[in-house]
Design a protein that fits this description.
It is built from 7 helices and 7 strands; from the N terminus they run βααβαβαβαβαβαβ. It is of the alpha/beta class. It has a single domain, classed as Alpha-Beta Barrel (TIM Barrel), CATH 3.20.20.140. Strands 1-2-3-4-5-6-7 form a 7-stranded parallel β-sheet. α3 packs parallel to α4 and α5 packs parallel to α6. GO terms for molecular function: hydrolase activity, acting on ester bonds.
Length: 177
Amino acid sequence: MYIDTHAHLYYDDLKNQLGDVVKRAEAAGVTQIICVGTDLPSSKTSISIAEKYNAVFATVGVHPHDAKDTPDDYLHQLRDLASHSKVVAMGEMGLDYFRDFSPRNVQKEVFLSQLALARELDLPAVIHNRDADEDILKILEEVRYERSVLHCFSSDTEMAGRAVSLGCFLSFTGNVT
């Protein structure tokens, strides 16, 4: 059994062929696909996609790139979205100091509040980290929530050890940039 733990099925190159994508995944032995939200609209879309396919589940969250654009009531909206039966995690949340599309203080605030909400709702957290190891660890230590995965992990072995000691899982991909 294989589970695709991080898919963005709403991307333009996939959204018009979702049925085929899900069928190809099933033919390859993938039994579940988790469609990851990166802002409020994509979180809602992820849920809509999950409602259409038994094998698809959703996450809801705000990616650090989009942190600057969150409305004041984003946590209330995320809480409501997270109550859907097909939502299995919070995220994609975290910090991205490589691109810095949102100010770092805003990224930290939005990440911290989402991680606290994930803990409150007892949902795993899907965490994005790009060139922000120390601040990620500080926030993880502050919230003390062990149901987290650092997706697309690309840091060093020291960071891996520290994250694992805090109860995090690590996932890897083929990114080179």
